[in-house]
Structure formats: C-alpha cells, structure tokens
Amino acid sequence: MANQSNLTVPSVEQDNAVVLCPTGRVDGTNVTILQGAVRERLEAGQANIVFDLADLNYISSAGLRVFLMAARDLQGQGGRAAFCNLSEQIRQVFEITGFDKILSVHGNRDDALSTF
Predict the structure, then answer these.
(1) Strand order from edge to edge, sheet including 23-26
(2) Rounded to two decimals, what is the model's pTM?
C-alpha cells in the first residue's frame, strides 16, 4: 500500500512552456509534492505550464485544488495552465467536478502547447 501514495512530478521545458508530468497518485498525504513543483515554477517566473496527466492514476479534491490554484496564479502572471493526456478515470473526475469546463483541457501535449 505504501507505493500507492508515491508521487513524482518530473518536468521538461518544451517550446515556451514547462511541462509537469505528475506520476502516481495525488491525495492528501502527498499533495505538497505537487504544490511544491508548481510553486517552484511560479517563483521562477515561468508563466505557462502544461500538466501532462498521462501517468496520473488518481487525484483527490486536494490535488484538484492545486490545479485550480495553479491556473488562477498563472493567469495572474499573464500566463496559462493547460492539461492534457487525461486517462478515462481522470477525465471522469474532471467532468464530474466541472473542471473540464473551467480549465483548458486538451487531448495531447502538442494541442496543449499550441494554446500558448
């Protein structure tokens, strides 16, 4: 069970954005890892972030809040957040919560990057 709470957030700079790739599960026990990865990019002045969710297995309301706050903070810096490669499970969470209507959601990374 310990592995279920594992979360890593590798990143890569691509085009004029940073791509964060949360891998594993985001829940209340590890959401600070995701928050830290986002904060680090915001503090570095990087205003465009793509969240590539291809390897995200689960997200709790705490993780969704991080995404929402990131989108708001990036917009405040004149940037944007885009989300891509949602698995069926993550897509359902976005749809149930309405996040698919308020966040910029795309089918793949190239589409997400093209919004900047």
Answers:
(1) 7-8, 23-26, 56-59
(2) 0.94
Residue from 5, 80, 65, 74 nearest 35 by CA? 65
The contacts of residue 74 (CB under 8 Å, 6+ apart) are: 42, 47, 48, 49, 80, 81
Q: How confident is the model at residue 5 (pLDDT cuts 50, 70, 90)?
A: low
In SS3 terms, the chain reads as CHHHHCEECCEEEECCEEEECCEEEECCCCHHHHHHHHHHHHHCCCCEEEEECCCEEEECHHHHHHHHHHHHHHHHCCCEEEEECCCHHHHHHHHHHCHHHHCEEECCHHHHHCCC
What's the topology of domain 2-113? Transcription Regulator spoIIAA (3.30.750)
Contact by Cβ (8 Å): 40, 30: no
Query: Judging by DSSP bridges, how do beta strands 80-84 and 48-52 pair with one another?
Result: parallel
